[in-house]
Amino acid sequence: MPRLQQNRTFIFYWVFINISLCSFSCTEKPQEKELTKIVVQQSEPVVSLDPALAQDLYSQRVIAQIFEPLVHYRKHSAEDRLHIEPLVAERWEISPDGKQYTFYLKKNIFFQNDRAFHGGKGREVRADDYIYSWKRIANPAGHSPNYWLIDNLFVGLRQWREGLLLGKSKFDDPIPGLTAMGPYTLKIILTEKRENFLDILTRAPLMAVAREVIEEGGNSDRPVGTGPFLFKEKVSDHHWRLTRNPKYSTIKTEKDTKHLFATLEFLYVADADTQRMLFEQGKMDVWNVPQQFDSLAYKNLQNKNGDYSLISFSNYSLIYIGFNSQQKFLKNVHLRKAMELAYDKNWVLEHIFGGRGTVADGILPPPLQLHNKGKALNQEATVSIVDAQKELAKGGFPSGQGLPEFTFDVPSTNRQARLNAEYFKEQMSKLNISIKISLLPWPQFIEKVRKRKSDIFMMSWIADIPDPLNFFDLFYSPNIPLGPDHTQFQSREYDRLYEKARGELDAKKRNELFAQMELLLGASTPAIFVLHPKGLLAVKNRYKNFQFDPIMMDTFH
Hints:
CATH class of the domain at 317-535: Alpha Beta
Structural class: alpha+beta
Radius of gyration: 24 Å
CATH topology of the domain at 317-535: Dipeptide-binding Protein, domain 3
Number of helices: 16
Helix content: 25-40%
CATH architecture of the domain at 317-535: Roll
Largest sheet: 8 strands, mixed
Shape: globular
C-alpha cells in the first residue's frame, strides 16, 4: 500500500498490519465493558483522505477505516493464510474465459450520514457507485495518481479516458466493461484475464465514494464511506480522530457492531524518543517501534511492568535506493552499477537497522520468493571499490571525471533514511562522486518523487497484495506517467515478461517469468535493492485477541 501499498501505495518504513483488537478479556462478555478509545501511531502524516488521490500508506490506512471495497482479505486465525472474501459484494461469478465478473452486492449497506444526502441520511450503496468511483480515478481532470491501477483493465476504459482528453466524450458516457445491471449487480469485462484481479479490487483507491458527496464538495476534508468508522475531525496536522459508525451495516448484527472502538485516533509523531515516551505514558496504544530500538534490550529495560507485548515479524516489503534512469548521467548503466558496487548493504543492515531485516539479493522479500534466484544477480555482488572504479571507467567517467553533483532525496523525519543517505554519500566520495543530501518533509518528498524530479531517492515499498507482480510494478514502463515506476526504467523485454506474467495462471510458468524479470533488473540496476526490514510492533496488553498479517490495511474491530 507505495499498499505501496502500495498501494496501498508506497511508504517509508511502515508495515501493513491487520489488527483485530478487543479491549476486554476473552472470558468477559462483550456487553460488560464498553469498547472505548485506541490511539495508533502514524510514522508519517496523512496527505489525503480521498481514495482517488491518496497514494501513500499513511493516508490509505485511515481511508480503510472509512471506506470499503467489494472484497477484502481476511485471516481466520493467526496461523491462517490470507483469503479473499466478500465484503460489500455478497458473491460473484466468473466466466469460463476469466474475463467477465459479475458481482452481486449486499443489500442494506449504507453510506454514512452527510449533508449531501436527502435529509442528511446516508443512502444505500449501489453498483453504480463503484463505476463512478473508478471513472473518477480514470478521469484525467481529476489527476488521480492511482489511475495506473486500472489503466486498460476494463474494456473501453482507456478509450473513454482518451475521449475525455480530446473533448469527444463526456463523464457519463457508458464504458462497455463496467455496467450496473441493477442497483445490486455489477458486470465487469476485463481486457484480458488477470490472475490477480480480485486482489486489485481490495486496494484502497478502488473503494466506493458517493457522487453526491463529491459534487457537493466533500473530499479529503469530509470523507464519507460505508466503513466501520466516521471521520470526526482533524485535531491538528498530526492528529486525526474517527468515531464508531453506529449504522455500520457490513457487520450483520448490532452485537458485532459493538465490537468497534468508540474512538479511533491516528497520531503522527516524528521523533522516536517522543513516540516511546507517549507509548509508555499510555497516550499511544499501538506503536511501530523504530529500528533504532533494539528489541531485546528495549523489552528488558523499558517494559518492567509487563504492560505491553512486543511482536516481531517479517513483512512483504523492500527498501531500495532508486536512480532516475532518464537523468542525463544516470542513464548510464555502468554508473549505476558502480554506485551499487560501492554500497555495503550488510553494513547498512547491521549499523543503521540494528540487524532487523534481511539483506536483499533481489526485489522479492522472503515471503514471496517463490523461485530459486540465479547467481547472475548483480545485487549479490561483493562490495568492491576497485570494481566500482572499473565500472566508472567503462561508463566513460574514470575516477569520477565529468560527473555532476547528484541530489539524494530522503524524508526529513526518518532517522534511518538520513543515516543511510549519509553513508551513501560517504561511499560515493570514494569514487569521487559528489552527493548532496536533500531532506524533505513527507508530503514534499512524495510529490517530488512522484513528479520524477529526483536524481536519487530512498524509498520503501510494501505489497498492496500478496503477489510478486506487485513488486515488479515498480519497473513496468507504462507505470511511469502516474504509477510507481519512479526510476523511469524502460525495457521492452521487461514489459513483455511483465504482461505475460500478468495473465499467466500456471504458477510454475509464472514463477519462471518472475525469475527472468528479476535477473533483468539485476543486470540493469535501476535501483539498489537494500534490504527487507523486519517489523517490531508494541501493543498495550489491555487489548486482547489481536492478530496481524504482513500486507493488509489495519482494521480495528
